[in-house]
């Protein structure tokens, strides 16, 4: 019999599933010790984390699928189940797998905060680089130190979304017939919009990118951004910094940025040419620029789940969200100019604009993984987002979402976490990085990680210890 999962999404965007882990043993997964709970009895308790909202739809899909596909085990005996067959429906005798949002900044601060390494804070999610200050704060905590790692778990495109109902374009330059229009944008124009340089929808720079659009309105552009410390904002500003060229200074970023190497993606630039992306709220980051230009303030909303419905309900808005939110709320998505600028093949030399798709995200991830120095897994340095990747098929705003993981839980300082919970976390993450990366389990708007990235991430799972001993030897 298949166990049908049950879950609830709270106002705080917390997802909770009840699972019972009972004696998993296989060549590809860690063993789950049913007698290693926090109280020494059957494995019970929570496996919860917090942070980035970018991967929320993917994590929800994984939790649901992971639960649905495994039959109920006998929780009253030590009988082993095979594979990942270790679930139960009761919150009182199972492990609760949970994740709550709050943004990447919250996830990072929670990782070394008061609840660190407890049942309610066993891992964190972030889409942004861990700054030197954050790393120093983590490593200053006695029971963490350098015993942590960061692995990518999910990846997908970010959509630039807008609300311009009834937008039309001519089917050709010589025709009077029109059809529904897709807005074309590039990084320079998006920079101009967010910095306050471009205030109206019918601005000449927007019209130049959309010569066939017949009814760009003369109304003000209502700019929307995140109000929390956001990894999605980090990916977005990473794109602006790499793609905007001469417009970088308009966005408050360093000019003359030419290198794609990891050395140029740190929070302590060695020269004025180093680029510094940010998680800072656009409403704060661009405030002085917009005030000086007489532009209205940016509207702030918390989480991808806060921005998407606001754009849906508000005509004239523009913002950025993980693409699954654009799909979920049926939002219009802009076609963005690629790094190649021009197409190839039979359409050679035509301007190249792409909407966010799985194919475009995969192309970007593949191109990014092939460049030396852009390792998405490197616990001691920065992490490079695969934005503005080379290739005519690469969508320009694609990001990884990382998990920050403790690598040595200690019984003396983790009273609410038992060995079985740590094993359960590793078992779930192993599944997410293997079976969970196939099309069956990927949520709309997410794509599989490159195989080399997954291999390295799984190797990192094997470094996770309980009282100094690896839980998955």
Write a structural description.
- The chain has 473 residues and is α/β, with parallel strands linked by helices.
- It has two domains: 8-154 and 402-470, Periplasmic binding protein-like II (D-Maltodextrin-Binding Protein, domain 2, 3-Layer(aba) Sandwich), CATH 3.40.190.10; 158-369, Periplasmic binding protein-like II (D-Maltodextrin-Binding Protein, domain 2, 3-Layer(aba) Sandwich).
- The chain is built from 13 helices and 19 strands.
- It has helices spanning 56-68, 104-111, 132-139, 187-195, 204-209, 231-243, 282-285, 287-292, 304-313, 323-328, 358-369, 419-433, 451-461, and strands at 8-9, 14-19, 45-51, 95-100, 123-126, 148-162, 168-170, 178-180, 184-185, 222-226, 299-301, 317-322, 332-333, 335-342, 351-354, 398-406, 408-409, 465-466, 469-470.
- The strands form four sheets. Strands 1, 2, 3, 4, 5, 6, 10, 11, 12, 13 and 16 form an eleven-stranded mixed sheet that branches.
- The longest helix has 15 residues, at 419-433.
- The radius of gyration is 23 Å and the shape is elongated.
- 52% of the residues are buried.
- The model is unreliable at 1-13, 17-27, 71-92 and 254-273 (pLDDT under 50).
């Amino acid at each position: 019999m298949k166990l049908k999962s049950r879950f609830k999404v709270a106002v705080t965007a917390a997802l909770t599933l009840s699972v019972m882990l009972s004696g998993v043993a296989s060549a590809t997964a860690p063993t789950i010790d049913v007698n290693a709970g926090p109280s020494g009895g059957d494995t019970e308790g929570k496996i919860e984390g917090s942070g980035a909202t970018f991967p929320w739809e993917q994590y929800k899909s994984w939790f649901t699928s992971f639960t649905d596909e495994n039959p109920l085990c006998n929780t009253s005996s030590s009988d082993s189940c095979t594979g990942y067959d270790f679930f139960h429906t009761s919150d009182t005798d199972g492990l609760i797998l949970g994740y709550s949002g709050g943004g990447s900044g919250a996830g990072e601060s929670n990782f070394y905060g008061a609840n660190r390494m407890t049942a309610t804070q066993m891992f964190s999610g972030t889409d942004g680089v861990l700054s030197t200050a954050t790393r120093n704060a983590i490593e200053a905590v006695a029971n963490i130190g350098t015993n942590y790692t960061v692995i990518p778990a999910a990846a997908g495109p970010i959509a630039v979304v807008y609300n311009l109902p009834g937008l039309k374009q001519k089917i050709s330059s010589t025709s009077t017939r029109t059809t529904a229009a897709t807005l074309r944008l590039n990084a320079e124009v998006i920079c101009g919009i967010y910095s306050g340089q471009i205030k109206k929808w019918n601005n000449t720079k927007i019209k130049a990118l959309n010569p066939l659009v017949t009814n760009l309105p003369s109304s003000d552009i209502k700019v929307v951004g995140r109000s929390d410390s956001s990894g999605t904002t980090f990916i977005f500003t990473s794109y602006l910094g790499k793609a905007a060229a001469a417009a970088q200074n308009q966005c408050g970023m360093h000019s003359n940025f030419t290198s794609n190497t990891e050395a140029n993606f740190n929070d302590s630039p060695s020269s004025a040419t180093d680029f510094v992306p940010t998680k800072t709220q656009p409403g704060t980051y661009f405030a002085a620029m917009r005030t000086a230009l007489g532009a209205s303030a940016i509207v702030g909303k918390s989480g991808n789940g806060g921005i998407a419905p606001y754009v849906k309900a508000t005509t004239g808005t523009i913002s950025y969200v993980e693409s699954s939110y654009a799909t979920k709320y049926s939002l219009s998505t802009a076609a963005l100019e690629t790094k190649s600028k021009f197409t190839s093949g039979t359409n050679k030399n035509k301007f190249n604009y792409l909407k966010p798709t799985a194919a475009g995200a995969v192309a970007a991830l593949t191109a990014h993984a092939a460049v030396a120095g852009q390792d998405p897994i490197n616990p001691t340095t920065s992490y490079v987002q695969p934005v503005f990747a080379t290739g005519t098929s690469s969508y320009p705003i694609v990001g990884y979402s990382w998990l920050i993981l403790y690598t040595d839980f200690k019984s003396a300082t983790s009273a609410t976490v038992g060995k079985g919970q740590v094993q359960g976390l590793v078992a779930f993450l192993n599944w997410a990085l293997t079976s969970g990366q196939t099309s069956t389990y990927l949520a709309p708007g997410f794509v599989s990680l490159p195989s080399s990235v997954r291999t390295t991430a799984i190797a990192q799972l094997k470094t996770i210890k309980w009282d100094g001993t690896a839980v998955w030897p």
